[in-house]
Amino acid sequence: MPKDTSIRSVLIIGSGPIIIGQACEFDYSGSQAALSLKEEGITVSIINSNPATIMTDKVIGDHVYLRPLTVDSIEVILQEHIDSADLPRIDAVLPTMGGQTALNLCKEAEERGVWEKYGVKVVGVDVAAIEKTENREAFRQLMVDIGVGVAQSKIANSFLEGKEAAQEIGYPLVIRPSYTLGGSGGGFVHKKEEFDAALKRGLEASPTHEVLVEKAVLGWKEYELELLRDSNDNVIIICSIENFDPMGIHTGDSITVAPAMTLSDRCYQDMRNQAIKMMRAIGNFAGGCNVQFSVNPANDEIIAIEINPRVSRSSALASKATGYPIAKIAAKLAIGYNLDEIENQITKTTSAYFEPTLDYVIVKVPRWNFDKFKGANKELGLQMKSVGEVMAIGRTFIEALQKACQSLEINRAGLGADGRQVRNIEEIMDGLEHASWNRLFLIKDAMAMGVPLESIRKVTKIDKWFLNQIQELVLLETELKRYSLNNIPQDFFVTLKQKGFSDVQIAWLLGNVTEDEVYDRRKALGINRVYKMVDTCAAEFPAKTPYYYSTFEEENESKPSDRKKVIVLGSGPNRIGQGIEFDYSCVHGLLAAKESGFEAIMVNCNPETVSTDFNMADKLYFEPVFWEHVREIIDLEKPEGVIVQLGGQTALKMAEKLTEKGIKIIGTSFENMDIAEDRGRFSDLLKELNIPYPKYGVAENAEEAIVVANEVGYPVLVRPSYVLGGQGMSIVINDEDLEKAVVKLLGDLPGNRVLIDHFLDRAEEAESDSISDGEDVHIVGMMEHIEPAGIHSGDSFAVLPTFSLSETVTKAMEEYSIKIAKALDVRGLLNIQFAIKDEKVYVIEANPRASRTVPFIAKAYDVPYINIAAKIMLGVAKLKDFTIVRKLEGYAIKEPVFSYEKFPEVTKELGPEMKSTGEAIRFIKDLEDPYFRKLYKDKSMYLSK
């Protein structure tokens, strides 16, 4: 069936601020869907309160509404589109791209009769399907009716029903609340004594106060299938995904592998048939769907865990894994097309009605931030706790696994072999039994210490095939230690590289050898990284998409063009302190480079984001943002230069090495960026410019720190150099606390210097963002924090423009911003943090790069600031070439969002280390707004050290 011509204008519901369990994978899906509908000539309106994402940018939607995600906001938009002659009436709503938030909102609007009242059609999902899949009892009954296996379970709406269910089913149990995301409120109950507390938590977490009490199938294997279905009832399976971790750990916290590695063909066919049956049973709709299964390793018995009638975290991964753009195709199916009527986006010659075939392996590893939640329970379970993830592509599982470890940015050079292994056997065995963020590394450490593979399997329940693969690394390391760098046989060297060993790991295993020496030796032996194309069809048809991963083979499929090109380094996995706002900046960097006539090349490893969409850059390298990988891409492509300013601290960390190797950094030079990062040199510069700053000192051990602190005066702010998101920062008020803080910091970050600043207690905090082209400086915006100094800027409610600072203060902030930009010869962006006390303005720090606030200001003022900054960095434009007109009536408030409900044992305290996972934007007309007045009244409540 061709597209439904009655649909001319569609509203897409976004997922709101980033929280644990619902991250930027939905902004990727929403962005892709919007562009897909625009291709069809449909007007796209987007409602989403998240200012940090590219989804709420003018380059994605025709009409973007940065409003709270409520039914009232939706009504206002629908009415506006009826009342205004300039806006088309909205014909349909697509709620499947915005995670659980969008589905719940769609359902609530349906219940309140909103869609019917405004004549809006719900597309992409059946509202009844949401009910069937989210209501645990309805789902269980449906599975029984269609003959799909489920775990023994009972529904409970009260304590009495819950206890009766537990008595009937027996322990261990799992509690799953209805209508929640990311496992909120769910958990395992191993014994009777734990049941009451777990039941209470589940009943409270569910908006309908309903839980499913289910038999726990601990140790069974877990799989996911990604499906697409059209209105003709054609269904295809895009991807099978196997969890490396067995049942018991939320899929968002599991290491996952695609395609499934240890599934028998018979079991896979059975699973496919059941998934298709399930999708057809939940409603008559066209779109994407995610189905989760569990398999008993003893006899291949399959049970269904759940089905989500929307795109999911896994569908973003499956899209990047296969190159098949699920959200893009799902959006076209939602408006009436059938699969065989849509062009295959990769080959451009076949239809979308085909199932991708992979001739490589994908590994996803989550990224956690437990260090931000003091006292958090770090054990993994049904409650999702990771804040981001990385994806790696290799020819084999083990190559992809090592590349994923290099992508995580936790200072690992791969899976072990880097001097950071654990050698305490009790700690290792405890970590194997109680899975946490480092269990993968502990498995390797256990093997290196001689723990038998069968003992590891018994305690972890991880499939033996995966453990054998890791064991092979241990054997290869033992063999490598027999050689010196100059006598490693070439074929053995090739094997090491094919198994994912980085040059750093090889250098560490050999001892007394540097990474550069290993690199030079490898090159001398002719062992070069080659690049293979992600083509979705195992090279059966020629692909038109320039999307690559690296491996060690003969043929290189990435042919560099002779165009002038730039490489944009991405920001790697999402984490607290470095989130989606940097991906927003990277996307704008790519677009600006393309508009300026450059070939734009992206290097990144985050599967959730828009920058790794295969049609954003001219060429995408889905690779770790890890020195060895970046270096070889540069060797191959020979770009004019590399943009490091847009990818947060991840990209900035590369600046020194790039400069050492004579590779041009586009924008501000490394030397000038380093002055801003190095506290001593930066303070000398401020002194020279006659700009006030808090008294400070630098220490390399606890004794020196105490001397410095007594000189500058307590309270003091203690922090390491070269970090992002306030990592490791704390406020201390006496010698004893200082000693503890310094010892811990140097333990976590050996070799770092500790900065000790006098903390300006009860000072106001503000920040400025600006763009400099070497001649002129334009102030992008100045924001005033509602909370006092001492709470990290990312955790503060901040107001644009400033609301209570005197003209003297704002003039000083502007003057200092211009002076610093010129002194550092900034080309591009600069963010400066200020503290104001008794009308005196102090500069706390300066960051010559994209900041968390630039996307916010760009949305609030409706000015494409990153695009402007990127063109200035590239040297193709000056500030005077742009006419900048700000459009903001009243004020915009940046609202941080926290994910404390995932860590019920952690108290909500805020300090200099950032803890928020995302943010929303809220517009107010004036300062009499009751919302603002309440914020201002509570401003110091959570300040802690």
TrEMBL record:
UniProt keyword list: Amino-acid biosynthesis, Arginine biosynthesis, ATP-binding, Ligase, Magnesium, Manganese, Metal-binding, Nucleotide-binding, Pyrimidine biosynthesis, Repeat
SMART domains in UniProt: CPSase_L_D3, GARS_A
SUPFAM superfamilies on file: Carbamoyl phosphate synthetase, large subunit connection domain, Glutathione synthetase ATP-binding domain-like, PreATP-grasp domain
All copies of domain ATP-grasp, residue ranges: 140-335, 683-874
Catalysed reaction, written as an equation: hydrogencarbonate + L-glutamine + 2 ATP + H2O = carbamoyl phosphate + L-glutamate + 2 ADP + phosphate + 2 H(+); hydrogencarbonate + NH4(+) + 2 ATP = carbamoyl phosphate + 2 ADP + phosphate + 2 H(+)
Gene Ontology cellular-component annotations: cytoplasm
Co-factor(s): Mn(2+)
Pathway, per record: Pyrimidine metabolism; UMP biosynthesis via de novo pathway; (S)-dihydroorotate from bicarbonate: step 1/3; Amino-acid biosynthesis; L-arginine biosynthesis; carbamoyl phosphate from bicarbonate: step 1/1
GO BP of this protein: glutamine metabolic process; L-arginine biosynthetic process; pyrimidine nucleotide biosynthetic process
GO molecular function: ATP binding; carbamoyl-phosphate synthase (ammonia) activity; carbamoyl-phosphate synthase (glutamine-hydrolyzing) activity; metal ion binding
UniProt-listed Pfam families: CPSase_L_D1 (PF25596), CPSase_L_D2 (PF02786), CPSase_L_D3 (PF02787)
Record text on subunit structure and interactions: Composed of two chains; the small (or glutamine) chain promotes the hydrolysis of glutamine to ammonia, which is used by the large (or ammonia) chain to synthesize carbamoyl phosphate. Tetramer of heterodimers (alpha,beta)4.
Family: Belongs to the CarB family.
Function field: Large subunit of the glutamine-dependent carbamoyl phosphate synthetase (CPSase). CPSase catalyzes the formation of carbamoyl phosphate from the ammonia moiety of glutamine, carbonate, and phosphate donated by ATP, constituting the first step of 2 biosynthetic pathways, one leading to arginine and/or urea and the other to pyrimidine nucleotides.
Protein name (record): Carbamoyl-phosphate synthase large subunit
Organism field: Pedobacter terrae
